[in-house]
């Protein structure tokens, strides 16, 4: 018998009507003869509601209590879905992260799943039940409840699928797959029937929140067969594949953006060895992740140095950098927290040049100023003003014809090989 892990996100669990629809979907999978394990998120808006309650009482809630509080959202969802399944005469059992055997590392707010003891889940399946697991949470070695970072229920689902060696992990959400761009911003965005694992990893880490980045890492690590599907409509969704036939891939597969960034610049830094390290280490030792780093060529013995951080860390990074700049004898520190990052992703870029040219020209024609650029083999990212993101996404979507099915030019020699 095949085993499927289904994950339902917040909008899929938004209210009793949605939860009843989810129960119907689970029922259908059972009727098709599958064993099913379900992972659920908190009801839409619930995690934010709990967060604002905490912040109304204290600007800086202790991480342990932050996790203890937020984990209740997912727990309520598991019980509600079991109640709905019971109404359909299906035996279901709710599991907290602890009950499902989900062991995590010790950090409370961004814990990683270290191990899953599947005994309880397997016993429940053996009894013919549908285990319904709370996403986004686990327990650390001290026995404290931990959470996996925003969007973490995706990671729970993939980890549970890997641990149970499920035949498929299905991520049900409010869109019917992974699109060429966020369909909320670009109505012309097209669903991708398939996306390579590598592209999905880039898209997620560059801001496409349809899958949490950590969940995509686990898809790769354990080769989990995964599909993104809609709770509210039918269709094949998007399959994450491990093919790497770049010759058959379009140049650009998707566009991602991230509004949660901020830029810091130190002007007039003495151009001597060790300065970059001192600047970056001063912020990274404070636990702040640095993203894009740019250093200009030196002129008259001084240079300029810029980098980006998460917007939540902006004020802290600015304060630290002020002290570092003074110590280094730099001229001035500038900051801008109204920036965003826009990225083109595609394994097809590996075998083609010219993508950057088209990207820069398109943004230029739109009058969008590029502040920073960074590239890798399969992505190009630029930092621009935040308010220009939506319009830039649409312009690039059009320029790369992402709304049309890609026409892939075959290499004539390869074509010949195939027909031989
Ligand atoms: P869930 O609550 O089900 O986990 P999320 O809100 O976390 O759902 O993720 C789904 C959302 O991701 C979509 O509503 C969509 O706006 C956004 N999104 C961003 N980029 C993409 C993309 N490339 N393809 C599909 N959805 C995307
Ligand atoms: N409820 C959590 C969040 O809103 C986890 C999730 O939905 O995946 O981030
Ligand atoms: Mg999500």
What share of residues is helical? 25-40%
CATH homologous superfamily grouping of the largest domain: Acetylglutamate kinase-like
Strands of the widest sheet, in order across it, are 3-6-2-1-9-11-12-10
- Flag low-confidence runs: 411-420
Q: In angstroms, what is the radius of gyration?
A: 23 Å
Using the 3D structure, state the CATH architecture of the largest domain.
3-Layer(aba) Sandwich
Order of helices and strands: EHEHHEEEHEEEHEEHHEEEHEEHEHEEHH
Give the overall form.
Answer: globular
How large a portion of the residues is in β-strands, by DSSP E?
25-35%
From the 3D structure, determine the CATH topology of the largest domain.
Carbamate kinase
Question: Describe the biggest sheet?
Answer: 8 strands, mixed
Please render the helix and strand layout as text.
Blueprint: E1 3-8, H1 16-31, E2 35-40, H2 46-57, H3 63-87, E3 92-95, E4 102-104, E5 113-116, H4 119-126, E6 130-134, E7 137-139, E8 145-147, H5 153-163, E9 168-173, E10 194-196, H6 197-205, H7 213-222, E11 226-230, E12 238-241, E13 254-270, H8 275-284, E14 290-295, E15 302-310, H9 314-328, E16 332-345, H10 355-365, E17 372-376, E18 379-385, H11 389-399, H12 412-419
Parallel strand pairs: 1-2, 1-9, 2-6, 3-6, 9-11, 10-12
Antiparallel strand pairs: 4-5, 7-8, 11-12, 13-15, 13-16, 14-15, 16-18, 17-18
Helix pairs in contact: 1-3, 2-3, 5-7, 6-7, 8-9, 10-11
The structure holds adenosine-5'-diphosphate (ADP), aspartic acid and magnesium ion.
């Amino acid at each position: 018998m095949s085993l499927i892990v289904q994950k339902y996100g917040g909008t899929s669990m938004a209210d009793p009507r949605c939860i009843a629809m989810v129960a119907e979907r689970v029922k259908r999978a059972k009727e098709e003869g599958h064993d099913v394990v379900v992972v659920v998120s908190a009801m839409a808006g619930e995690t934010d509601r709990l967060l604002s309650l905490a912040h109304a009482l204290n600007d800086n809630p202790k991480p342990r209590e932050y996790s203890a509080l937020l984990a209740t959202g997912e727990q309520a969802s598991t019980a509600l879905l079991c109640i709905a399944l019971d109404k359909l005469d299906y035996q279901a059992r709710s599991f907290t992260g602890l009950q499902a055997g989900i062991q995590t590392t010790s950090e409370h707010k961004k814990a990683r799943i270290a191990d899953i003891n599947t005994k309880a889940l397997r016993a429940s399946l053996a009894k013919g039940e549908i285990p319904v697991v709370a996403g986004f949470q686990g327990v650390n070695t001290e026995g404290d409840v931990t959470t996996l970072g925003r969007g973490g229920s995706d990671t729970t689902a993939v980890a549970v699928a890997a641990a149970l060696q499920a035949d498929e992990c299905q991520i049900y959400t409010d869109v019917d797959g992974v699109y060429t761009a966020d369909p909320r911003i670009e109505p012309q965005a097209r669903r991708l029937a398939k996306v390579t694992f590598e592209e999905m990893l880039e898209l997620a880490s560059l801001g496409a929140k349809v899958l949490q980045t950590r969940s995509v890492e686990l898809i790769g690590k354990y080769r989990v067969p995964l599909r993104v599907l809609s709770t509210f409509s039918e269709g094949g969704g998007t399959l994450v594949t491990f093919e790497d036939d770049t010759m058959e891939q379009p140049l650009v597969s998707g566009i991602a953006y991230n509004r949660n960034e901020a830029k810091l610049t130190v002007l007039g830094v003495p151009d001597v060895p060790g300065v970059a390290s001192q600047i970056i280490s001063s912020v990274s030792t404070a636990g702040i992740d640095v993203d894009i780093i740019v250093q200009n060529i030196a002129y008259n013995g001084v240079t300029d140095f810029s980098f980006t951080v998460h917007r939540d860390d902006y004020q802290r990074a600015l304060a630290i950098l002020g002290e570092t700049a003074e110590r280094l004898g730099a001229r001035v520190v500038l900051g801008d927290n109204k920036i965003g990052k826009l990225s083109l992703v595609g394994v097809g870029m590996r075998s083609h040049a010219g993508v950057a040219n088209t990207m820069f020209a398109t943004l230029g024609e739109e009058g969008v100023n590029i502040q920073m650029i960074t590239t890798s083999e399969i992505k190009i990212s630029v930092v621009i003003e935040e308010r220009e993101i939506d319009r830039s996404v649409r312009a690039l979507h059009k320029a790369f014809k992402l709304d049309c099915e890609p026409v892939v030019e075959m290499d004539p020699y390869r074509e010949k090989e195939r027909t031989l």
